[in-house]
Predict the structure of Flp pilus assembly protein CpaB.
Amino acid sequence: MFESMGAVRIAILAVAAAAAIALAFIVRGMMAPDKAESAVAAAPMAPPPKPMARVLVAKKDLQVGYRITTVDLGWQDWPVESLNPTFVTDGGKPKVAPPEGVKKVANGAATAAQDLMSGDEPMKAFEGAIVKETILAGEPLTPRKVVRGGEGGYMAVVLSPGMRAVSIPVTSETGAGGFILPGDRVDILQSRSQEGGKGHLTEVLMQNVKVLAIDQRTAPEEDAKTIVGGVATVEVAAQDVEVLARGRAQGEMMLALRPYSDIGGPSRRGGLGANQTVRIVRAGDVNEVAVR
């Protein structure tokens, strides 16, 4: 009898253990949704997207003295809250930035289309401007860092190191009929009476000099072939300023237009007996030698 009672106790304990295990699984299943809900609740909410504007920036590093073209500029999305009043925007309404990685191709196409519609005018306003302070790639353009023709400080930026800007009175007769434009190369000549009335002496004062401006125009208008002005501003070395100053005091000077191929050549003094440069070509090697 005792043996049968022991077996009954063992069976009861086994049933109780099984019931306890089943209850544990039931309780765990009931608690699982709560944990999931708490995990969802604990997850931080993504911040709302910020409104963005499009700002005109440099595509590459622009050094001091560099002349800007529209190829050097581009549009870049910029947070509206970080906009500076000096930044140049495309004038469009601020837009909300899309989530990262969403329809990049479509966004790129939309940006390109917007460039065509609204990007031309602000870029053209900076075309031809000279960099006054270094502008890094991706940096917004500001009027403080560039100077345009007709603005103060323009000529000081355009001048090469060690060079000076000198103005010469010209007319349509002494300025090649107005065909001399800013950026051209010229020789500066002077014809004056010799002492004692022994005829006239024509002398080349400077050779291959760069023209910086005609009057206050530093670039010809679109499709313009001539500029008739009263003053030509040329670029000469500091030690050659006295040559032009003396020539101006002695009488009228004339500009002779040089070919476009001379643009890369150096400027130098002329005059009777002055050193001249002779180009010697030998076995394919080109050398320039100064001779008297």
Remarks:
- The chain has a mean pLDDT of 76.
- Residues 194 and 200 are 5 Å apart (CA to CA).
- The chain is about 25% helix and 25% strand.
